[in-house]
Amino acid sequence: MTDMIGSELRPNPPDDTRKVLFHVRGRPVHRPRTPKGYFTDATAGYAIFPLVVLFGLNAVDELDRSAFGVLAPEIRDNLVSTTNSSSRSSR
Predict the structure, then answer these.
(1) Pair 22, 58 in one domain
(2) Which domain holds residue 10?
(3) pTM, to two decimals
């Protein structure tokens, strides 16, 4: 039953009507697809915009994590030095 569900969800194989340039070990090597053709084949004709949005959100999240990891020690050191200097001046 899993095969039936999986085969229903699996996209149709791309239509290889592209010109065969040469063969490597018996496998045909076609002319490269255009980016639009590649993404159309990869998404089975569905919209690519949601994937681009998810990719962008993930990139921003990873950048935020990296920046916080790099800047956290400096922030901690500045907060500790500020706290120590303010407690000394109040005495």
Answers:
(1) no
(2) 1-46
(3) 0.48
